[in-house]
Design goal:
The protein is of the alpha/beta class and about 250 residues long. It contains 8 helices and 9 strands.
Length: about 250
């Protein structure tokens, strides 16, 4: 996809030194979609494809100052959140989001692929500022108390999000995602791909949606294009690392 010099997207998330998830994955995805990427770091991890051994939080006021600096000078057309770490950080981002004049995609990251805790509570304070919330099934259950995809999406919208995309990668069978925009449901199916290399799929998927919104796409079109991209990124993964390796951020954007 050709670059759009007017399209700018912001990620507010954690750092993954192995490059497969977090702000590294987000920035790679923004670039692949032809979008100028900005990044605010919320936490730093020590991880690779096999393990997460340490997580260090940034100070909440430091994160708020980063957001303020970016929005003041190069305001994005869309933003997303990733790993926020603690309830206090979720509340801090919610304080900033109250002043956003652009859509915010909330990816409510709770644990890493290796099981390390990366998310806090207080999501109910951030959801009212979300143009879209993108939980996987375990996250949706934690937020709403149900694994029924349509019911979970409806509950998240009732909690304040304008729309909800429930990702079905943890289900048996095809990787079906369900979008509810407050009025109707749209399903996004894809064949399940047999691979262990799925590190950063949630980050990459939500970043692709954010990039689409930054380029002016409608929500359904942004999700549909992001779904095709993440499917291709998983299918063509480079097979890096001894554990759960990254997806292919060079995948074609259709």
């Amino acid at each position: 996809m050709n670059a759009d010099k007017r399209a700018i997207a912001l990620t507010i998330a954690g750092s993954d030194p192995s490059g497969g998830a977090g702000v590294q994955a987000d920035l790679k995805t923004f670039h692949q979609f032809g979008v100028y990427g900005e990044a605010v770091i919320t936490l730093v991890t020590v991880q690779n494809t096999a393990r997460v051994s340490r997580v260090e939080m940034m100070g909440e006021e430091l994160v708020l100052a980063q957001i303020d600096a970016v929005v003041e000078d190069i305001p994005p057309m869309a933003a997303k959140t990733g790993a926020l770490g603690t309830p206090g950080m979720v509340r801090t981002v919610a304080r900033a989001a109250a002043g956003f004049r652009f859509p915010l995609v909330v990816d409510p990251v709770m644990v890493s692929k290796h099981g390390a805790p990366l998310g806090g509570g207080a999501w109910e304070e951030l959801l009212p500022y979300a143009a879209l919330v993108t939980p996987n099934l375990p996250e949706a259950e934690a937020l709403t108390g149900t694994t029924d995809m349509r019911a979970a999406a409806e509950r998240l919208v009732a909690m304040g999000a304008k729309a909800a995309l429930i990702k079905g990668g943890h289900r048996e069978g095809d990787a079906l995602d369900v979008l509810f925009d407050g009025r109707e449901f749209t399903e996004f199916p894809a064949p399940r791909i047999a691979t262990r290399h799925t590190h950063g799929t949630g980050c990459t998927y939500s970043a692709a949606i954010t990039a689409g919104l930054a380029r002016g796409l409608g929500l359904r079109e942004a999700v549909a294009r992001a779904k095709r991209y993440i499917d291709a990124a998983i299918r063509t993964n480079p097979g890096l690392g001894s554990g759960c390796g990254p997806v292919n951020h060079f995948a074609e954007v259709e």
